[in-house]
Design a protein that fits this description.
Keywords: Plasmid. This is ArgG. This protein has 6 helices and 2 strands. It is mainly α.
Length: about 200
Amino acid sequence: MAKSTPSSRQSTRVVQLRKGATVDMVRLTCPDAMQALKIAESFGTAVIDSDGIRDLHERLVTETADALGDGLGDKAMQIHLQRIVGAYVGSAHGAGQFYSRAVTEARDATAKAANDARDEDLDGPVGYDSAAQRKREFAADMGIQAHSLRMAAEGAVAAYVQVIGESWKPFDRPVEQPGRALDRKAAEAQISAFD
């Protein structure tokens, strides 16, 4: 039986990370204050108090940290706020992605409705909106919602900087691969048969 000699190369393990949403991703997908105002004016919806939402969420997270200050150490506070802010940012990013899809569908429906030769895209009966109009209104509603959540996320991120003293970054967690552990156990059992 041949003895195996240890390899000079060390085996490296590659760990895939699940990337979290960032504030920059939120800013790319959610309308800013000017765009939200334009949407509200064009569709006759309520004008959102963007600064008020941002300030309220900044105070909310800051006051929460103050209340927890005596009970949590620095690292525990950082981990807790990391998760809280991550929830706000993730929610805003999801809303922004949904808004982007709604805008695409509204544009597609509007372009199709402009083609006079398409019967299925004609306006509905008198007194009812066309499918394209409903999609535009839905996209407008989603835009206002995404903007509101963006402002909440930006307030939470600003509070994180105040409390922790550094910029917030999303936690990138390893991707779970349950099949790998089973494959590794099977390989170990097979290798042990050679001993």
